[in-house]
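Researcher: Here's a chain I'd like modeled. Treat it as a single chain, no partners, no ligands.
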Amino acid sequence: MPASRRHLRFLLNDREVMLDACPPTLTLLDWLRLDRRLTGTKEGCAEGDCGACTVLVGRLTAAGLSYESVNACIRFVGSLDGCHVVTVEALSAGGTLHPVQQALVEHHGSQCGFCTPGFVMSLYGLWMKKPDASVLQIEKALQGNLCRCTGYAPIIRAAQAAAAADPAGDVLVAERERVTAALAAMRDGARVTLGDGREALILPADVDDLAALRAAHPEATIVAGATDVGLWVTKFLRPIGPVIFIGHLDALRRVEETEAGVTLGAGVSYTEAYGVIARRWPQLVELWDRIGGEQVRNMGTVGGNIANGSPIGDTPPALIALGARLRLRGPDGPREMALEDFFVDYGKQDRLPTEFVESVFIPALPEGAALAAYKVTKRLDEDITATLGAFRLIQGGGGVTDVRLAFGGMAATPKRAAAAEAALLGKPWSAETARAAMAALETDFTPLSDWRASADYRMRVAKNLIWRFWLETSGAEGDLRLARPLAEAI
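Model: Modeled as a single isolated chain. Structure tokens:
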């Protein structure tokens, strides 16, 4: 049995906080505004879309102290043990505006001002990582921040102007060593338990402890990034207790890379996976850049996206197309399966109540294989998928020797198009066979209509994505992609 304690410990701006009582569904936004009266952090959407609630959360990683922008409206206080929460109040605590704030004033980057604290914190996070960021990098950092009155041009100009500021006097730069030491002292490797029964909040000591807790509490909700579970609470008022938080477990945040492929621990965030995804599968970068906004990518995890089992999850179709394998862990040890076999039906996965997702292995792309992923939404940035197609195709001997066509938004689960694949196998990769695969989708799917798209639209788009894939892999002339250039990794 690991050591245990019954309180949370973290830093809030320049002070240490210790909580011995905390409901498992208490959001950081509510705690900041209602308990600590730090009202600079605003509530706009309460679902992680608008960015008005943006704060920075710092944590210790293998590379040292790292700060990320997050949505306080869907971040639970229980996930903050051993972290440093920084709100907009910290930037001007001495009465002088921070360079980012001053630049927004001078370049007229604020009108009504409601969204401004969130923009300040997102730009502050970017400023610390890359003060000389390009316009594309600034735009990427602001994907999760919405402004209804100013427009974004003056905000971008302010971000560029702030780049010239001397970071020497910055509060997080000046206090970095002290904060690092304080957070290191909080890492005692203990299991944290607050509350009882349905109101229990638990942080396992390690992955072995997580396995034991999962076996003892199969009814518990496991929370990694909370980018979906947060909405269960704020929008649907669902009871989710007891809650087991896992974001602090370093063993689940490992990225292991070999020639055969890459293993992502279930707690690896989209941001943490970005570098290896861009290097090994650059064809997926555009998809990755359109998963939520920066705050969502900093919080959300690939493992959580899989475990949630949504038919419109962004990563499963691409991972299925690559032949990914999932590793579950339960009281009897690990269990592995092809990722596509994990999804059984809507809201149902091949996972026992006592099991949890431990990792996913993504095989290397075979030499000469073509790969593409296309996400179709109503707007370019920070939108939920209507239809998503991910395709991998290998040719040899004048024909298609292997093909995987996976779709999201077309069925009750992320699913391969078996009939369309059969129409391609052994045939030359040509316009004729592409059209045959398109026609076969009518056998593979009977999509539904909802507010994101009609059934007819989804089917038409899915067929056109196969045609697009054919055009892009057949040497067709001209630029077939209308998306903006990709931002550099930050």
